[in-house]
Amino acid sequence: MRTLYVFRWLLALALGCASLSTASAQSATASDLRAARDPVLQRSLEGVVRDLGLEGQLSQRHLALALVDVTDAQAPRLAMLNGDEMMYAASMPKVGILFGAMAEAESGRFPLDAERLQAMNRMIRQSSNEDATRVLKWVGETRLLDLLQSERFRFYDAQGAGGLWIGKGYGSEPAFRRDPLRNLSHGATAFQVARMYTLLAAGTLFQPRINELMLDILSNPGIHHKFVRALQDVPGLRIFRKSGTWRDYHADSALVEAGGHRYVMVAIAEHPDGGEWLVRLGARMHALISAPQRQAGPLPPSGLLPSIQVRGG
Questions:
Q1: How confident is the model at residue 73 (pLDDT cuts 50, 70, 90)?
Q2: Residue 81 phi, psi (nearest 5)
Q3: CB 63 within 8 A of CB 82
Q4: In the predicted model, is pLDDT for residue 25 greater than 60?
């Protein structure tokens, strides 16, 4: 079955992905999610934090959130709290390694053979540290940081608020380059991770077939906690997700489709109870988008994959 899956993707890529479209490149470069700040959604997100008794943790910068309603891909709505705060994000930045592999695959420098596809799936779905380090080496450590900071993608800005940073493999090896702002090995801001998922949802992060492949690898999460646990009873759910946990550091990120809505949510917490915070926050952020007073019609065609049921692991 896996062999058929690999051949299906390789054939599709060979037929449909020979080159990057100019429109896609321009869209990824020009996209400025900050312009989508929505005061109503912002106040609602602030109310969730207040209701959950997390205002003190927010003020101490132990919690960062971003929520983007992308039901209308042409008019996203953004709310965030500490969205530009660089935080240690454990395994969540593995989504950045996947991004690097997809960028190199799009340019033809990263062969999408069975070994590499399987390693990327294990890196994301089971959060395999060994595979994360392996894929990082395939992409190239310096090359990945160059891509994250490139003019096209701009997922890390050393002169601004930072962003998504991978400066170390996921083993015992030392960091090869820590981020310039906070000296983090695996760092992220909620805003830049949300921005990556938003571009992915809009189909403008990469050329269409590469976009779909990245979504496929992010689907079917194998670890049942945080956002996955929060949404486990939502009917007809589709979720594309990467989380992270190390000691008191907890993070989760997801593109979610449910009930005629599509949205991105990202949370990073530094606290022993952070994992439980993310369960409650995930449920409440879902409610903000799917509340009855904001019912939306059918989703426009998105090119996303068939309905995916959340499973444990």
A1: confident
A2: -130, 120
A3: yes
A4: no
Alpha-carbon 235 to chain mean position: 22
Mean pLDDT of 300-305: 38
Among candidate residues 217, 161, 227, the one with its CA nearest the CA of residue 188: 161
Burial letters for 158-184: b for 16+ Cβ neighbours within 10 Å, e otherwise?
eeeebbbbbbbbbeeeeeeebbebeeb
Q: Work out the angle at residue 87's Cα, subtended by the Cα atoms of residues 84 and 93, and round it to the nearest 5 degrees.
A: 100
Domains of the chain: 35-294 (3.40.710.10)
Q: How many residues does the chain have?
A: 313
Type of residue numbered 86:
M
CA distance readout (Å), 281 to 57, 113, 175, 215: 13, 38, 32, 23
CA angle 121, 123, 127 (to 5 degrees): 120
For residue 291, name the pLDDT band (cuts at 50, 70, 90).
confident
| Bridge partners, 79 (sequence order) | 67
Strands 238-246 and 77-81: unpaired
pTM for this prediction: 0.87
Q: What is the mean pLDDT of the chain?
A: 88
Question: How far apart, in whole angstroms, are the C-alpha atoms of residue 196 and residue 190?
Answer: 10
Quote the strand ranges of the chain, DSSP E. 63-69, 77-81, 87-88, 156-157, 162-163, 165-166, 186-188, 238-246, 249-258, 261-270
Q: What is the mean pLDDT of residues 69-95?
A: 97
